[in-house]
Amino acid sequence: MLENPPWPPQLRYPAAVSMPLPSVTLQEFIGYRRSMASIVQSPMIQAPAAQAPVVPAGRDLRLDLFRGLALWLIFLDHVPNNILAWFTIRNYGFSDATEIFIFISGYTAAFVYGRSMQERGFIVAGARILKRAWQLYVAHVFLFAIYIAEIAYVASSFENPLYVEEMNTLDFLKTPDVTIMQALLLKFKPANMDVLPLYIVLLMVFPLALWLLLRRASVALALSVALYVLAWEFGWNFEAYPSGHWYFNPLAWQLLFVFGAWCALGGAARIAPALRSPITVWLAVAYLVCSFAVTMTWYFPRLGFLIPHWLGEWMYPIDKTNLDVLRFAHFLALAALTVRFIPRTWPVLQSRWLKPAIMCGQNSLEIFCLGVFLAFAAHFVMVEFYGGPAMQVVISMAGILIMIATAWVISWYKRMEGRGSGTPKRPPDADLAGGEA
Amino acid sequence: MMNWTAVGRAVATAAIVLCSAVVRGEPAEICAVPGYLLFGDSKLDRAHAAVLKDHELRILTLGGTSSSLPGPDGPSSAYPSRLEAALTRRLPGVKVTVTTVPMPRQTAAEMAKSIDKLLIDQKPSLVVWQTGTYDAVRGTDPEEFRASVSGGVERLQEGGADVVLVNMQYSPRTESIVAVGAYADGIRWVSREREVPVFDRLAIMRHWYDQGQFDLYKATKDMKLAKSVHDCLGRALGATIIDAAQLGARHGTMPQQ
Q: Could you name the CATH architecture of B37-244?
């Protein structure tokens, strides 16, 4: 099925970092070039960055790979009561696939639209970003329609004296006027449909953030941190319907997105020396081990004595809604080790075994939406037929295979379109750096 | 790169160990629950003292609709009554009374408001507080939910009662409709913070489902399934209470009675 598609796929924008533009000062441009160069450098092959900047030979496949893996993990976590969800990282530490996903999305958004903004200016790049946000919104509404269809079906066949209280959850079906309006306003967000709204909000303000990131990257990052701190301090969040707030607080999660963008635009180069230091590696390992131990005490209450009371007092609750610092740190530790031990030039990245995950990562919006849909479909199958462990395994594997096959078809279609259009220099498309969502 | 492989291997090994721990389970005896789901290290000292000194255990259960069953024999089949029966069996010579205070369609914050009055009226030595489902349905802010439960537990403790928290039911049909995870986490965190046992109904019922003991997906008007589930819940809750109040030898699983 997967016979020799050209790999790596043809790049449709010039691979070299472009010429300096009037809107960027020389210093910033050098910083940008350096950053691009040092992303390429593996920690093992340390070329002096200032001397001969290495031009990125193509997209960073690590981003695609880990985004693809994150999409699979998000799908596994969304299949109800999935025994395979025990393999996903959320069970072995504080952070989960969402952090990976948002960080890489910020990184690629800055990579693609940063170039666009330098070449074509603020207005054009901003328009492209907003167009992408609109695509995400349409995708979200489409998924919501499928969700309502599934839930309405489940509700019609749901009768069990054991679950009288849970049936209240279906009350929203009785007031479609309110429910659908609130859904269009992104206030009513059913389970598992929280990530796209977060992403839409992040993209809507990204033109401004990117503008500043390209000029004063550190200031932009500092502002992002400040917003994060203020959101924590004053409990800022967006309102949700029927009550409460957004499950992923955009005012907190923007930190991860902006941090990803900052890394793409030179930040990674700035922190590269620190990442190479053995102290960082050991700190990261120690932190991951500790968080693993803490997580185990959640599943085995008898191990609770291992956590001293003062530590629990200080540590809990670990807040996902507001991107707890412990979660952020856990992601940083994972990322630091990944960057340290998996160089960009890692030959395995070209292997056919990783290709499925990489392809999924490259078509992330489509595959993300497909994953949400497949999770609904899985729930439907489990309700209608059987939901035992064997079925969970079958459904999970089938879902991932469908995701891979779809990614392959989309890649094929994009390649074919790219060739047929006769315009080799198409404007940079978000998908080129691995898609947006 | 070697280090990375080693880390990966360690994680994979841990995953496999954990999985086998989950899959292995217990022999498919009805109601059987592995010990790690039932027993923690928080103690119920007041319940312990009440049993030893007064040979009496007064329990108050606060809960939403999922702590009751519909129909004429619903109250006597629901888990609070089954808890009373299980404890009476296992604590001979002790007068066990379980009083149920139904609080349908109330969030944790609303339930917490009635706590002071209930303590004065009932003077229980142990309060079993089931909450979380209605908050999850309403989409209460998980942090507010946690704060409400935490405050409620504090007031119960100040009022002289031990507390056992009970989380949501495992409801596979509504699993992709209402996300209960954040509220289950909130209850777990309160149980750590206030050092009270939590009866993890969610994990226990999921275990029964995974073991094939109960088909919880079933759409049926029949009360039989609901009654058996509540009977098992009552026994399991009894085992948790007896262990935490140090009123019997530890068994690892529940004794079959």
A: 3-Layer(aba) Sandwich (3.40)
